[in-house]
Amino acid sequence: MVGASRAEKKYQMLKLIHSGRTLAEAKAIMKATEVALNSPYVNPKDVKDLLDLEGGLHRITMTRGRAVKLAKLRFQPRKGYASTKEEVLAKFVSDYKGSLPLDWKRDGNLIRRGPPNKPKPGSSQGKIGKTRVIGAREAVTNFEKLIRTLMTMGDKRGKKNLGAVRQAAKSVRKSVNIYTGGGG
Fold first, then answer.
1. Residue 72 in this model has a pLDDT that exceeds 60
2. 147 close to 60: Cβ distance less than 8 angstroms
3. In sequence order, what are the residues at sequence separation of 6 or more whose Cβ sits closer than 8 angstroms to the Cβ of residue 131?
4. Nearest to 64 by CA among 169, 162, 160, 157
C-alpha cells in the first residue's frame, strides 16, 4: 500500500491524532505531517520555502566526494525525490529516521476488525486545519547571506570555509506540533 489514496492517508492521520499516538511515534508524526503538507492544507509558497531549505541543506551536508562547488550552491528544491515531495518534507521537519517511501499499510490500533466501511468522501472536511510554516523563508535568506559572506571571505583569503556552513546547517531547528483543539 505504498501508493495509498489521499482518503486513506487522511483517515490514518485523524485516527493517529485522536488515539494519542501521534506525538509519541516518529512514524505517526511522519504520516500526519505528510498529510498536513498537501495542497488543501498548506500555502504553496510555504511548501516552496521548505523545499528550498531542505534542498540547500541537503547539498551542504553531502559528502565531500559528491558535494557541489560552493559557488554553485543555491537554495532551491532538489531534483529526484525518493518519494513524494510531501513525504520528503515530512521527513525533513519531523526527524524521521526510517526510509522512504512510507508504508501506508495500517498498523496497531488502525487495523479494523470486521468488514470495511464504505468510503465517505469529504468526511475529513473541517477536521484538518491549515498548516502553518514558521521561519522557513527567513532561514533560506539567512543561509544565502552566510554563503555569500563565506564566498567573499574565501576570495580574499583563498579558502572557502565549507565546515562552517555544514555546522550552521546542522543547527537549524525543525519541529512539528499538532494542535488537536476543535474544528479547523
1. no
2. no
3. 36, 37, 41, 42, 43, 46
4. 162
